[in-house]
Amino acid sequence: MKPSRSPSPSPYRPPRPSTLPLDVCELVADAVLSLPPAVASQTLRSLSLVSRGWTAAAQSALHRDPWLSFDAPDTVPPRTYARLEALERTLAARPDLARGVQALDLGRYTARCQTEAKVDRRLVSRLSVALVSACPALKRLSIPFVTHVDKMDLVVALRELSMLETFIFGEGAATPEPWVIHVDVSIQDTWGTARWTRADFAALSTRWPRLKRLVLEARVRGRDDDDDDGVPWALESFELALIRNTKLSFAYLDKLLAGCRQGSLRRLVLKEHQFEPGALLAFLEQFGQNVDALVTSSADRVNPDKTLVAALPSVCPHLRVLRLASPIASDVPDTLQQLSQLSRLTHLTLSTITSSLSLGDAQLCVDHLRGFARLEEVELLPGAQVEGSTNALVVELLQMTLREVENRWKWETTRGKPEP
């Protein structure tokens, strides 16, 4: 009996050219990007192994918005920092892929890097600068932090991003600085988070002619009485998401968004409690004339801002979407009556009603809701401090009215359309 022999390994066969045109492969790869990131990433990796044509299309799509999986636990390599290093090496070796990177979400990954052993803030900072430098065609960038000594290198890289449309600035988390009082101050200079000023952004904004969206997750330094013209960018969307309870003045925001004074802003996402008293209304009076979406959140669930609600129809007359977190007291019917003057409003959320509605108040709400011209969706939500629940009859009455308003709007919008 002959001894059995182990089968010989299959010879390596290089990928064959795809029988599909390259543009078809690219369209399929682009469609894959609409899937959830984890699924899209795995699918594109599989497609890159099919053939040479699929390799080019899949790799290009895969690096357009690089995504790193968080599925593996922290103890299983490769960890986040190692994966970012591998990405940087790939982009350095493949300029063709680097030129195709359109989005880089460093804020998603660098906070996790700092929790890993043998990875310090300086290493994360240097790697962040290297990744930004490698991607000259970025349209969307989230950069949480760099250390003091790396700031100028990052500024040089940022100056080259002439295609940038969205800039997310800040850590998005209140991480402690790595020094202690009475320790050598040089530690702060080397390891501490770089300070950014209004002048820094003013200089960069001239290099970003396409910038339309700013998300501010860290405060930009600048004094209200500084003799400067402010930052000249003409943004369409501004989001304020500071971590600490900083109180911003109107003068501070006026100079930070100086280029938006002519009405470029269309969308605002703001934390109301991070404004000094009266600053939010003053800001909307100056910048809100063309805003069509206003979304707010607030840690203050007690003190109603009646002045803001009453002024909205005049300072933001083009609002279509309003999600307001200003506490609304027992005058909900008055609030709805005032907001019904917003003739273009389609979506309304009042999320901090501070008291239960009586049946009489509910009837007034019904009457005022019928006065909205284009309302499609309404949410009236009680604040956390409301004791008990609103009477079930009141809730049913409001729900019936909301359905009536929505159905009326849908009927009016489809009335003039021919039947399919």
From TrEMBL:
SUPFAM superfamilies noted in UniProt: RNI-like (SSF52047)
Taxonomic source organism: Rhodotorula paludigena
Family matches, as InterPro entries: LRR_dom_sf
Name the record gives this protein: F-box domain-containing protein
Organism superkingdom: Eukaryota
